[in-house]
Amino acid sequence: MIVITTARPDEFAAAADVLAEAFVDDPVARGIVPFEADRRRRLAHLFTAVLRSGPGPRGVIDLARREGDERIVGVAAWEAPGSRRGALGRELAQLPLFLKAFGPAGLPRAMMMEHRLQRHRPTVPHWYLADIGVSVSARGLGVGSALLRARLDAVDQAGLPAYLESSTPENRRLYARFGFGELASIAGIPGASPVAMLRSSPPDPGGLG
């Protein structure tokens, strides 16, 4: 059984390690952090900064564990409607970690690619799945589905849509089972072709698996 809890600040570093492991070979992550030798270490810095600054006071970071095991095996970071208010100040506070992730020369490139991703977000209030990842040891156990199901139930109760970007066909198939539909391909990410996906509210019951 997979148990879902909300992350505490003292769990952010461990959660970032899980995301770094999950994204080390992800096409978008490779485009944003194009350092082969130490990409996982840099991604750990990046996700620590993102978890500290990104979701904001109204967002949420969900953690997945196997029942009876304290080790984190999955992470989903969600931004609630309005979470971006005050984001710049939170991100500036994490600038040292962003620099460790990208290097001084790579920071402008990363900011440009992040802008290309963000400009596809809906203009209406919505929940945004910023990041979701599962540790290698727990893949195939339904961890990603458990994380999605737990938060989407709350999103449905609020009567709001949900949005994400997906970088692989395999992940898009999973999201489609939860009612996400493809909106558009996102250009400008080296070596990657992420797709913007939206889940309407209420979702079409025929799209749920």
Automatic annotation (TrEMBL):
InterPro entries, alphabetized: Acyl_CoA_acyltransferase (IPR016181), GNAT_dom (IPR000182), Trichothecene_AcTrans (IPR052523)
Keywords: Transferase
PROSITE patterns: GNAT
SUPFAM superfamilies linked to this entry: Acyl-CoA N-acyltransferases (Nat)
GO molecular function: acyltransferase activity, transferring groups other than amino-acyl groups
Transmembrane feature ranges: none
Domain N-acetyltransferase: start-end pairs: 2-202
Entry protein name: GNAT family N-acetyltransferase
Phylogenetic placement of the source organism: Bacteria, Bacillati, Actinomycetota, Actinomycetes, Glycomycetales
